[in-house]
Amino acid sequence: MRVLVACEFSGIVREAFRAKGHDAWSCDLLATEIEGQHIQDDVLKHLNDSWDLMIAHPDCTYLANCGVRWLYVQPDRPEKMLKAVQFFRRLWESSIPKIAMENPIPHPYGLTILNVGKYSQIIQPWQFGHGETKATCLWLKNLPLLKPTNVVEGRKGRVHHEPPSPDRWKNRSRTLEGIAQAMAEQWC
């Protein structure tokens, strides 16, 4: 199966699918952190490259509920939110047969404008072998709900307590390996 992992610089999801024998490619404006099949470009240019499945991780800065308090404090945020919504929708409305879109809990303004419906499910890292919390929404098209694979104790909010640093946003946005492996096992 040809798999596009959109907006992924880490290579974690891509490598989980490659380990299962799939022709998986990540695509991001940034270089990949793990050497492998990576397209460093705007993913919108590659949506029609005969993919069977896309797992997309669009930037959550202007869509997530945690950032809604800044929406009308900073004058450029509403326009940036609209661009983020358009990008999300272009990915969702692509002709790729199977799609999973991943993002944190959305704020109601972006969700209303998105007009792609409510997310299909919310997953947590502790359901996939990582003893921490980070509510993640999945919008699924022609895919089953992701089933927990390894429910563990521990509910540490690691990503919420990440100290300020230049790489904070990267550390918060990486998909954890247990979730990536579940996707590769269940969505093949």
Key terms:
188 residues, alpha/beta, Rossmann fold, seven-stranded mixed beta sheet, 5 helices, 7 strands, 18% strand, globular
Quote the average pLDDT: 91
How would you classify the helix and strand content by structural class?
A: alpha/beta
CATH topology annotation: Rossmann fold
CATH architectural category: 3-Layer(aba) Sandwich
Overall 3D geometry? globular
Strand order of the largest sheet: 3-2-1-4-5-7-6
Number of strands: 7
Write the element-wise H/E pattern from the N-terminal end onward: EHEEEHEHEEHH
Helix content: 25-40%
CATH level 1 name: Alpha Beta
Number of domains: 1
How much of the sequence lies in strands comes to 15-25%
**Cα-atom radius of gyration:** 16 Å
Protein name: Methyltransferase
Organism: viral metagenome
List the SSEs and their pairings:
Layout: E1 2-6, H1 12-19, E2 23-28, E3 38-40, E4 53-56, H2 77-92, E5 98-104, H3 108-114, E6 121-123, E7 136-141, H4 168-173, H5 177-186
Parallel strand pairs: 1-2, 1-4, 2-3, 4-5
Antiparallel strand pairs: 5-7, 6-7
Q: Mind explaining what this structure looks like?
A:
The chain has five helices and seven strands. It is α/β, with parallel strands linked by helices. It has one domain: 3-Layer(aba) Sandwich (Rossmann fold), CATH 3.40.50. It has a seven-stranded mixed sheet with strand order 3-2-1-4-5-7-6, with helices on both faces. α1 packs across α5. The longest helix has 16 residues. It is globular and about 45 Å long. It starts with a strand and ends with a helix. The model has no long low-confidence stretch (mean pLDDT 91).
